[in-house]
């Protein structure tokens, strides 16, 4: 049932849906499974960027289910169910701390949409009545602090910052102290956009994580990794390395409206166990929405 699914999400999925149309056309009305069908299903799932492991699992499940007479109707409904199961059914809501503030650490590479996603997330939380503080710990990249400051001003949101080149862990420390002293509901901590191969910057990310953990019990309560949907399977290597450094709890998938590679969601979830919690489907502050796997799969197969 898709009545809650926004038009923004539907529109944002247009390119990915276009690729999945090949899977849709193959499955529609199909009640019989043979090797030619399985080969074609495998090819079209690959083209949809579902990934090797997930594709192999789905094809084998279809093969076995048909042998076991588990498929009693159209194959399409069975494949949709397999895709939903790949995404899991765990709670995708923000993990709130029992006491204020809840700390959300944001990680990701430059160009992934990290800074914009922070602004969108802050707006989403403000709309829920939360008092939000931003910590500008991306002190390595030129203009990063200024960009986040502009967003904070537009949102009417407080921000803790220092000059470019300052110690990012020190900024995180100051932000934690202010968040506790002034009763903020949420502290969102930006971190330096970095390639997952840049060891020294990954170490800085670990330092920020450790500082936050010392200052606020149980923090960070969420570590959200921002991934660019247009990179498809290449996002997997980033996710693996970031998870090793800071134990990510979820993903914000950006630029979903600009790619046909949304199928990478399945591989990321299967290999890393990380749920996609939010998706970005545009450039406006309201263009960040909670991710629902059932609606996502159903929308891919809408006529």
Automatic annotation (TrEMBL):
Give the CC-aspect GO terms: cytoplasm; plasma membrane
A GO biological-process term: SRP-dependent cotranslational protein targeting to membrane
Gene field = ftsY
**Keyword terms of this UniProt record:** Cell membrane, Cytoplasm, GTP-binding, Hydrolase, Membrane, Nucleotide-binding, Receptor
| Annotated binding of GTP, by residue | 108-115, 190-194, 254-257
Q: What is this protein called?
A: Signal recognition particle receptor FtsY
Q: What is its EC number?
A: 3.6.5.4
Please report the organism this UniProt entry assigns to the protein: Thermogemmata fonticola
Q: Is this entry keyworded Chaperone?
A: no
Q: What is its main location?
A: membrane
Q: Is Membrane a UniProt keyword of this protein? A: yes
Which family is this sequence assigned to? Belongs to the GTP-binding SRP family. FtsY subfamily.
Q: Which GO terms describe its molecular function?
A: GTP binding; GTPase activity; signal recognition particle binding
User: What Pfam families would the database entry show?
Assistant: SRP54, SRP54_N
Which HAMAP family would you find in this protein's record? FtsY (MF_00920)
Catalysed conversion reaction: GTP + H2O = GDP + phosphate + H(+)
Identify the enzyme class.
hydrolase
Q: What does this protein do?
A: Involved in targeting and insertion of nascent membrane proteins into the cytoplasmic membrane. Acts as a receptor for the complex formed by the signal recognition particle (SRP) and the ribosome-nascent chain (RNC).
Q: Which InterPro entries match?
A: AAA+_ATPase, P-loop_NTPase, Signal_recog_particl_SRP54_hlx, SR_rcpt_FtsY, SRP/SRP_N, SRP54_GTPase_dom, SRP54_N_sf
The record's subcellular location field reads: Cell membrane; Cytoplasm
Membrane topology recorded in Swiss-Prot or TrEMBL: Peripheral membrane protein
The entry describes its oligomerization and partners as: Part of the signal recognition particle protein translocation system, which is composed of SRP and FtsY.
Give the domain of life: Bacteria
Q: Which residues form the SRP54-type proteins GTP-binding domain?
A: 275-288
């Amino acid at each position: 049932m898709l009545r809650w699914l926004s038009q923004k999400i539907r529109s944002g999925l247009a390119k990915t849906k276009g690729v999945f149309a090949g899977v849709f056309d193959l499955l529609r009305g199909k009640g019989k499974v043979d090797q030619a069908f399985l080969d074609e299903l495998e090819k079209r799932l690959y083209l949809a960027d579902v990934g090797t492991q997930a594709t192999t699992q789905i094809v084998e499940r279809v093969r076995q289910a048909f042998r076991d007479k588990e498929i009693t109707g159209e194959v399409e409904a069975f494949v949709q169910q397999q895709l939903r199961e790949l995404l899991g059914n765990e709670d995708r809501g923000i993990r709130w701390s029992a006491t204020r503030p809840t700390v959300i650490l944001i990680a990701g590479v430059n160009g992934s949409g990290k800074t914009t996603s922070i602004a969108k997330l802050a707006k989403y939380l403000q709309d829920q009545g939360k008092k939000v503080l931003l910590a500008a710990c991306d002190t390595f990249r030129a203009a990063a602090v200024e960009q986040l400051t502009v967003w904070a001003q537009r949102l009417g949101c407080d921000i803790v910052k220092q000059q470019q080149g300052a110690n990012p862990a020190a900024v995180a420390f100051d932000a934690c102290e202010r968040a506790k002293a002034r009763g903020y509901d949420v502290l969102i901590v930006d971190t330096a956009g970095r390639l997952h191969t840049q060891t020294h910057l990954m170490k800085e990310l670990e330092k920020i994580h450790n500082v936050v953990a010392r200052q606020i019990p149980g923090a960070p309560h969420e570590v959200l990794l921002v991934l660019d949907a247009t990179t498809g399977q290449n996002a997997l290597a980033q996710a693996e390395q970031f998870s090793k450094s800071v134990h990510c709890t979820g993903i914000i998938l950006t630029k979903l409206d600009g790619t046909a590679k949304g199928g990478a969601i399945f591989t990321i979830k299967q290999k890393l166990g990380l749920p996609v919690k939010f998706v970005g489907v545009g450039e406006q502050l309201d263009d960040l929405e909670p991710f629902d796997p059932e609606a996502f799969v159903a929308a891919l197969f809408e006529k």
